[in-house]
Amino acid sequence: MKINRRNFVALGAAGAASLAMPSIGRAQGANVSFMSFNFAEDPNRPFIQKVVEDFKGSSGITVEPIGSAWGDMQRNILLRQRSRTLPQTAQIQDRWLPAIAQMQETVDLGALLGRPAIEEAIDPGALGLGLVANKLVGLPLISGSVGFVANKEIMAKAGIAKVPETIDEFRAALLAVRDKVPNSVPFGMATKNPSSIPLDLMLLVWAHGGRLVDDEGKVVANSPATRAAFEFIAGLMRDRLVAPEIDRPDARRLFAQGTCAFYIDAPAARTFARSFSGRGEAADAFVLPMKTPILRAGDSPRSVEWGQVISMFATAPVAADAPVVRWLRNFISNGVQTTLPLQLGGLPTTKSGRASPIVRNDNFLKDWAAAVGVTRKHEIGVWSNGPELSTILSEEMQAALLGQKNANAAVDAIQSRMEQSMARRG
Amino acid sequence: MTQVTGNATAGGDKPSRLRVSSAARWGGLKAGERRVGLLFLAPALIAFATVIAWPFLRALGYAFTRYDLQTPVPRFIGFDNFRMILSTPEILGSFVTTGIYVGLATGFTVLLGFAWAMILNQPFRGRGAIRAISLIPWVLPSTVSAFVWGWIFNSRYGLLNALFLELGLIDHPTAWLSTPNGAMAAVVVTKVWLSIPLFMTFFLAGLQSLDREQIEAARVDGAGNWPVLRDHVLPHLRPVLLVVIVLGVIGNLQHFDTIYALTGGGPVRATAVLSIEVYRRAFDQWDTGLASAIGLLWVATILPAAAYYLRHLLRGV
Questions:
Q1: Alpha-carbon separation of residue A53 from A321, A337, B73 (angstroms)
Q2: Interacting residues of A120 by C-beta distance below 8 A, sequence separation 6+
Q3: Is the preceding peptide bond at A289 cis, omega within 30 degrees of 0?
């Protein structure tokens, strides 16, 4: 093409127009875009790929999956919102929803899909995963809880005959592992990543009878129970029962490779153990869901509500029969609900999925359900300033672990810094 | 100058029919050349405006707004973000951490870069090969270097622990990156390792322009190594040294990638320099307003060094 002034201007205009294209990104050559963190994980990618291919086979609709690591997912969504390149649908961890719900592009799925129909299909216990201020902003895909997992093989090596039930028994078990299994990390507690630390900390604070933020958003960290939890955690580090530089993915690998006895995870622990151990389904033999240790006999073991939802983003009204809506509905179809949640290590969210024989006969999920105890919502993630609260908790916990602050000073700092953050949140 | 290709009558008479080229109609040949120059400059200008100037100006505006997850549309709040910076010890601590990091990284790089240049300036067999190998850290992508050093410092399977355990210097593996001093040392060592080749090149170029006869004359007069270095080499390298220090300070004030890859600013906030602080506030906590305000102050810390460097550059050091 001859470059003259007119062509130059035309090219410039075309470039500018392409930059100003629609703000919700449809993948090139595909009908629907879907951002997924499971698609970025080697063990889980084939499962998502299968759902995409089966959906194309049955509907003729092409879906482009976009992988994004779990730790980057929330950041990617919010960055894409600001750069107007949001995917049409995305897999979201339940505790990110309060932040995601703030985006004006997030679609009210209750209005789009019909709230009564959704309530009819989804188990009432799982429906809450997708609700923010009673608005359905995520279609529940997988449900479960986050709790403790034990490695039976390491317990046997360390001579631990009984799964620890109390905090004291748990500590004794950790000491046994440290002394009898060389080069092991007895407890793969998250000590490195601000995204992972709060969850582990929260469970241990609950186990000691404390809370961090109550249901009304009041910071209640400043309590003897929280101080006791911090002293317990700092003691674990002093005695080399937990290790620095451990994040959830590290703990999963160490656990699967036989160098970590206990760690905290969702039911997805089984999938990771199968993959990272190289033993496939044979790894199920050593993955044991256990109740969160309690302080005193008679206390209820606690676990954190956990689940994944599918959210949808649009800047204009979407027709009820649009490809993206059909893709969305596919996630709560029987075909998907009786396979994908199990493959990803969770429970289905639909009533029919939960009632299916394949789910009811899964021994691991039965054991998991027996170990759940009393579940509570993530105390930090439910607030829209959750990321800042997570940073505060992580910094103060690391300070206590490293001995930079004693338990009292760390808890005092958490109380005052989190109060300021909540006040700023308004 | 207007180019006239026909005849014109003098004395203000109405000219006869003139044939004027298009270039002349637009202000003459020189103006035409200027337009072509601008056209060639346009891509760079557009890129600069789009990628640097416009985001900077927007960030400048955001610094005076509340713009976070709770406030999706920026709201003007005057100097509140700056007041918050002044009243938040954690953020103020980042300025101190930045000072420590820049001081250590620049100091050690200059020192070791100079020492290495002195060695590579000596005639010995294999000098050319060693000079070439010395450039490897500079050529490697910085994140690759960060992961190499992350592996060296790793608490469980790191090279440093293996070496120290072998030598009997430690009883059990140490988590270098999980102690404040260890983490700071690790990020400084990594940056120094990355920067030595460039600094060494500057110094080597300076050393090669040093008059050897002058040194030999000093030696004949009985001058030892230290007097030669102090009275001849260093004065000769003074302009190079100034440029290298200023460039080092600017580069280390801006540095982000290896620190983020190695420690993420931790443990606690031990390596949370300003670049990390801005990133965390903007992309972990989504407080764009506060991040912009910190970023503005960060730019202010870089400006004096940048101005000093530019002044010397324009003068022709």
A1: 20, 16, 39
A2: none
A3: no
What is the average per-residue pLDDT within B310-315?
78
Question: What single letter denotes the amino acid at residue A83?
Answer: S
Rg, C-alpha atoms of chain B:
28
Amino acid letter at A286?
A: F
* Cross-chain Cβ contact B70/A102 below 8 Å: yes
User: What domains sit in chain B, N to C, each tagged with a CATH number?
Assistant: 30-76 (no CATH), 87-315 (1.10.3720.10)
> Which SS3 state, helix, strand or coil, does residue A14 take?
helix
Task: Specify whether the CB–CB gap between A64 and A76 falls below 8 A.
Answer: no
Give the torsion sign (CA, A361, A362, A368, A371): positive
Distance of alpha carbon B253 from the chain centroid: 7
Q: Look up residue A317 and give its amino acid.
A: P
Interface test with B, best of A388, A396, A419 (most B CBs within 10 A): A388
In the three-class reduction of DSSP (H, G, I as helix; E, B as strand; rest coil), residue A308 is classed as strand
Quick check: A404 and B70 CB within 8 A? Answer: no
Amino acid identity for residue B43 in this structure: P
Residue B286, min C-alpha distance to chain A (Å)? 8
- Above pLDDT 90, what percent of chain B? 56
Q: Does B269 touch chain A (CB under 8 A)?
A: yes
Residue A218 in contact with partner chain B when CB distance is under 8 A:
no
CA distance B42 to B51: 14
- B87 touches A: beta carbon within 8 Å: no
- A22-144+306-375 and A146-304+377-425 agree in CATH topology: yes
Q: Which pairing describes strands A139-151 and B65-68: parallel, antiparallel, or unpaired?
A: unpaired
Report residue A414: phi and psi, to 5°. Answer: -60, -45
From chain B, the residues in CB contact with A194 under 8 A are 284
Q: Which of A16-25, A38-47, A398-407 has the lowest mean pLDDT?
A: A16-25
- What's the rounded Cα separation, in Å, for the pair B173 and B158? 9
Residues of B in contact with A245 (CB under 8 A): 154-156, 175, 177-178
Interface with A, mutate which of B268, B280, B281, B292 (most A CBs under 10 A): B268
DSSP A234-294: HHHHHTTSS-SS--HHHHHHHHHTTSEEEEEE-TTHHHHHHHHHS-GGGGGGTEEEEPPPB
User: Residue A244 and residue B155: Cβ atoms within 8 Å?
Assistant: yes
Q: Are B266 and A398 in contact (CB under 8 A)?
A: yes
Dihedral sign from CA coordinates of A216, A220, A221, A224: negative
| Terminal CA-CA length for chain B | 39
Output the CATH code of domain A22-144+306-375. Answer: 3.40.190.10
- Within 8 A by CB and 6+ apart from A232, the residues are A167, A171, A204, A208
Binding-face residues of A in 231-260 toward B, CB within 8 A: 240, 243-245
Domain boundaries, chain A: 22-144+306-375, 146-304+377-425
Kindly report the average pLDDT of chain A as a whole number: 90
Q: Are A375 and A305 in contact (CB under 8 A)?
A: yes
Min Cα distance B18 → chain A (Å) is 26
pTM, whole model, 2 decimals? 0.81
CATH 3.90.1150.10 fits A146-304+377-425, yes or no: no
The answer to whether A75 contacts B180, with C-beta atoms less than 8 Å apart, is no
pLDDT digits (tens, 9 = 90+) for B201-219: 999 999 998 888 888 888 8
